[in-house]
TrEMBL record:
Signal peptide: none
UniProt-recorded name of the protein: Competence protein ComF
Domain of life: Bacteria
Family designation: Belongs to the ComF/GntX family.
InterPro entries: ComF/GntX_DNA_util-trans (IPR051910), PRTase-like (IPR029057), PRTase_dom (IPR000836)
Length: 231
């Protein structure tokens, strides 16, 4: 309702912003969190060595790139795309993530993936909601970064419980066997895309499904992260 009545107002400060943007340039600039750990998105005092002390001790890890930590005001808004259908947030938040990724590539901190793949949604949920927020994010990032998006290559074959409130073991059981890869060309060096990472279980489950079918995942991308580390 707010987006309909105040289409040109920033959702944080209520000042005028570009139509369809949802956030003004001042709030976006003031909200820049600085360097984030590539293991858990925890804010770092300096970019090098790119991971916090806890993540440096992890033998198995896969890079996670997020625009914001979830507790950050702009990170908290990432969930509003799905929950409150605030589609005007899609463009500025994807801009922020794309800029972070381009900066990491320029510094040699992260390899550029060959393609993007969003976390799929079961068809029943897709009919109920009308859109897959993760797929929209992947398409927006693909356009900004000139990368192919392969969302049609994976489907969710059964509905799952809401992950909120489930512990790690319950989340893994909930997701077991829910993803299926559509046969086709081998996919290499994929970046998986979602809106918010909470425990990393969804990314890990999807990556495991892809690996079993001979495809490779090199990194995870999300607008915001609320976890300590992704394995």
């Amino acid at each position: 309702m707010m987006e309909r009545s105040l289409p040109n107002r920033c959702l944080l400060c209520q000042q005028t912003c570009l139509q369809g943007r949802g956030l003004c340039d001042v709030c976006l600039a003031d909200g820049e969190p600085g360097p984030l750990c590539l293991g858990c998105s925890k804010p770092l005092p300096a970019p090098v060595p790119w991971r916090c002390g806890s993540c440096l001790g992890k033998k198995r890890w896969r890079p996670l790139v997020c625009a914001y930590p979830y507790h950050h005001p702009l990170g908290y808004l990432a969930g509003a795309i799905k929950i409150q259908r605030r589609m005007s947030l899609l463009s500025p938040l994807c801009d922020a993530l794309a800029q972070r990724l381009e900066g990491l590539w320029q510094l040699g901190a992260l390899p550029r993936p060959d393609a993007l793949l969003a976390v799929p949604m079961h068809r029943r949920k897709l009919v109920q909601r009308g859109f897959n927020h993760s797929a929209l994010i992947a398409v927006a990032l693909g356009e900004r970064l000139h990368l192919p998006v392969l969302n049609e290559r994976v489907i969710k074959v059964r509905p799952t419980r809401d992950q909120h409130g489930l512990n790690g073991a319950e989340r893994r059981r909930n997701l077991r066997g829910c993803f299926q890869v559509i046969p086709g060309a081998r996919m290499h060096n994929l970046a998986l895309v979602d809106d918010v990472v909470t425990t990393g279980t969804t990314f890990a489950s999807l990556a495991a499904t892809l690996r079993r079918d001979g495809h490779s995942v090199s990194q995870y991308w999300a607008l915001a992260s609320a976890l300590n580390t992704v394995s």
